[in-house]
Design goal:
alpha/beta, Rossmann fold, 2 domains, five-stranded parallel beta sheet, two-stranded antiparallel ribbon, 7 strands, 49% helix
């Protein structure tokens, strides 16, 4: 792979692909940060979205805009991001927060002691926004008491911290709010990140704009015009999910380069779908094949089987 090809792939790796839904989500979360920073107002949100819709990109953009810095005697952490462990307990949640805040003895002390140190660090590190990601891990995985215990601890910690907070995770994350009424009341404001919908004209219009932007980033001339038929095939191939869209265009670029094409042909997309999304997606099961049957790939064994389909109606 030559330097020019590496440069194109690097652009995809570092580029934040903006669209109205993403910008709205970022704006709402940033408002929670700014209100806390400017007047000490605590604003809490829950951000829900299936995998690949942009939650991780939101986090990275916030941390990049409000980065850590160092004073003479301490670290300043405007935005604290905590990834919930796969089996969350008060102990490992507290230790994870202390570790991120720079406590060298993050593993020492009782739960009460660790909580007190977290609150002291939040104040001294000037934390204005705490993001708890992978919230779906709170769903009961054995001990029925565990989700309740951790959610109670989380509620108390957030209240006492004075910082704004965002709970972020997959759709099933809402379970933690259902089992804890007080937490639900504190996080009544919701931000959704959904796949682009083919059934909604404005959403599909945003989808086509993003695809055009992806082609521009690939820095290759198009093979013909981007037709409505091709946009529809793109949607069947990705279910409107941003991560799949990016993976597909990167793979199509690589196929075009490998085969010596001067532009990205539909044949490139057909092969890229097999290589980057579904290895069994050939013939009538490949959205870019001339024999594609235009049925959603949501049956068992297909790439989008577990994805909720109500937002994706044809």
């Amino acid at each position: 792979m030559n330097k020019e090809q590496l440069a194109v792939l690097s652009k995809f790796n570092h580029r934040v692909i903006k669209h109205p839904q993403f910008e709205s989500a970022f704006s709402k979360i940033e408002e929670a940060y700014q209100l806390n920073d400017e007047i000490g107002f605590q604003l809490n949100l829950i951000c829900i979205g299936m995998s690949g819709t942009g939650k991780s990109t939101l986090k990275r953009r916030l941390v990049k805009k409000y980065p850590e810095s160092y004073a003479k005697d301490r670290k300043i952490v405007p935005v604290l991001v905590i990834d919930t462990p796969s089996l969350p307990t008060v102990k490992n949640m507290a230790e994870g927060m202390l570790f991120q805040l720079g406590d060298p003895a993050f593993f020492k002390g009782s739960a009460v002691d660790k909580t007190g140190r977290i609150l002291n660090y939040i104040k001294s590190c000037q934390v204005r926004l705490i993001i708890f990601d992978e919230l779906q891990h709170f769903i009961d995985q054995g001990s029925r008491a565990a989700p309740r215990q951790v959610s109670d601890w989380l509620k108390t910690l957030i209240d006492q911290s004075g910082s704004s907070a965002v709970l972020m995770g997959l759709e099933q994350s809402e379970y933690i709010l259902r089992i804890n009424e007080q937490l639900r009341r504190r996080f009544s404001r919701r931000v959704d990140l959904k796949p682009f919908s083919i059934a909604c004209s404005s959403s599909f219009r945003d989808f086509t704009k993003v695809i055009k932007g992806l082609y521009r980033t690939a820095d290759m001339p198009l093979s013909g015009k981007l037709s409505q038929d091709l946009f529809k095939r793109w949607h069947f191939a990705t279910n409107g999910i941003m991560a799949y869209m990016v993976n597909l265009i990167i793979s199509a670029y690589q196929v075009a380069q490998r085969e010596g094409y001067a532009s990205i042909h539909q044949e490139c997309l057909e092969q890229a779908f097999i290589e980057s999304i579904w290895s069994e997606g050939e013939g009538r099961l490949n959205p870019f094949s001339k024999s594609f049957n235009f049925n959603r790939l949501i049956k068992p064994g297909m790439p989008f089987h577990k994805i909720e389909t109500k937002e994706l109606a044809i």
